[in-house]
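DM from R.C. (forwarded with permission)

"hey, sorry to bug you on a friday — could you get me a structure for this? deadline for the figure draft is monday and I only need the backbone to look sensible"
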Amino acid sequence: MLFEDFINASEKKINDVLNSQIDLSDFESFIRKSSKEIEGITEDVRERFSAFCDYFFALSSLPPDRANVRLKNGLLMIDKIRNENLTALPPLAEKEIDLDSPIKYAKKIGPRREEELRKLGIYMIRDLFYHFPRMYDDWRRPLKILDLIAGERVSATAKIVNVEKKRIKNFIIITAVVTDGFSNMYIVWFNQEYIYDTLNGAKQIAFSGLVKNENGKFKVYSPDFEVVDAEASKISPIYDLTSGISQGVIRSIIENNIQHINAFEDPIPESILKKRNLMDLKRALYGMHFPKSEYHLKMAKKRMVYEEFFMLELSKIMIKHNVQSKEGISKSFKGLLSKQFMKTLPFKLTNAQKKVISEIEKDLKDSKMMNRLLHGDVGSGKTVVAEIAALDTIESGFQVAFMAPTYVLASQHFERITKDLSKFGIKIAFLAGSTPYSDKLKIKEKIINGEIDMIIGTHALIQKDVVFKNLGFIVIDEQHKFGVKQREMLMSKGKTIDTLVMTATPIPRTLSMTLYGDLDVSIIDEMPKGRKNPKTFVVNNSKREEVYDFVRQEISQNVGVFWIVPLIEESEKIDLSAATRIYDEFKSGPFSNQSVGLLHGRMPSEEKNDVMEKFLRNEIQILVSTTVIEVGIDIPHAGVMVIEHPERFGLAQLHQLRGRVGRSGNDSYCILLTNGSEIDRLRYFAHTFNGFDLSEYDLKLRGPGEFMGTRQHGLPEFKVANLVEDEALLIEAREDAIDLIKEDPDLNAYHKLLDEMNRRYGEKIKFVEVG
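My reply, with the result:
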């Protein structure tokens, strides 16, 4: 038994006694027996180990109260033992080094190695120590052959019985026979003759690899290994590599430079380290690369996870504080226009909408800048809220810009908002990349002269020659579809602009905190009355003809049909239905008597708009489309959506797609046409209509990377932290960041912390100060 295993088992036994699950005599018996079986007790541990064991001998002879005191003291002793004997600091450095020096100045680095390390994102000496292992092999425990399972990884230390070298044709086979003292197993290498010389004469090997069972014999092929003596077993790091860099090379480089960890200064205040029981930075970085124990590794990971979250949350909260502290322009309005507009609405605003409108109106009237996220499920009525805020802004004498990510969505917003607001004398214009040049010049001239109250468009709004006379409010729809620089360019077109970003993408709390921590958040969590959820069915592809019959029946009732496919063209690697092929097949096959349209992202903007206009007028009855219709498209008579290969989509995306039907209040249907994979996930979707519930489920199932998809969503790249597994630490880090900014808004007393935050997020902090 390892000393660490003994300490862990002792802790469990003490808690079992305190909880009356075992008797004191059982604990005493465990201490006496186990203390004789401990392996690898080093001199720095021996005295502490003996004192710990002696403290519990004859425990059962003490009165119960005194015995309980000793047991509770034992738990404190265990914490101290772990901190003092199961962790370690890096060796002292012979000379100081600048961590921001190029990596070529580190030991064992030449020009070729420098180029190879740069491929791993290692440019400076500092970066070397933040290139963390992706996993670890624990070689401290002896091999137990009876516990081996074929197909699983083994990490152990074993005695070498024999080493053989055979040549068969063009192959050199090295076989090491190793034993656990009872049984033997085999480790095999091919065409690596030097290994024979390495192992020949060695007595013990630490190795890791995948176990295979061949005719009753356990074998591991080409494992990671080291020749060790009885005291040399360890936890071995495994790193991500690049061409020219092997595990041995990267370990050697880090090991030869490990003393430079001493040059790091801990940016996290001592008070927070104590409050959250966090390891100091030097001990943690050393533990990430060469942990002394599982406890050392666990606490090192906890520290680095917390650090990633804390730095991010601190930067977000500091951004928010900076924005809120900037003087804006208080907008003066009585709400005359917005009240007239609300009277014309054919429905009553929900209480959630009214609450959000009140929050936004308060922000507009405040002299501080507004930087607010409007988060609402598909069909919850975000656009109406944005229209009311726009009217209040225009009444106060300012211009409004409304930017959407696609031509189709932007043009649809333009048509809707023009219809809703032009009756109140609001001058509205549309600007997109495909707008004719002569029209662009006229529109831009009217914007700068103040002849246009509200401009709606795509990325064309951020061009340098789009200049406003008095821009006071911007709305960015589905803001995660834009890059940071694109949003920055729009936000910089006025001195102190109030900003409202909107999204219908349901995002779990942990992701929302990391993505939108710098924004005030308003949530529309109530759906309009009369809105029916689409009836959702998971249908096997074998029943395709029945789906065709159902679709034809719905079309005969003047119901519009979306048919969604994941790809535009055929892929040789992935057998997925392509939009173009489906479109051609439908026109000449099952829907030859219906009008079929095609929509995908590669079509010219004018063509997309023409297709959507025809679908809106019911001139197109079934629209074969990619996910270009995912966001915001409003076709009231669309009542059926069929989704090919739904297993290829995240639940949040499926929810967005499903939200495109049933907007008229009539019965609607969403059919998931599947090949039979991921049925449980799809069935959960079919019975769940709350976007936030779906997003939480999908995040836990698929992880943050797959959930968010591409990097354009702005999800931070964490080296250690996991938003699902480490949610509790994220919440703690955010609480501490909020408290720290309240105490010292500019971090004047925390220079090391400010330096580290600027090093990581300096550009992003600068960006949000603009908006």
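R.C.: lifesaver. The chain has 26 helices and 21 strands.
me: no worries. The first strand starts at residue 135 and ends at 138.
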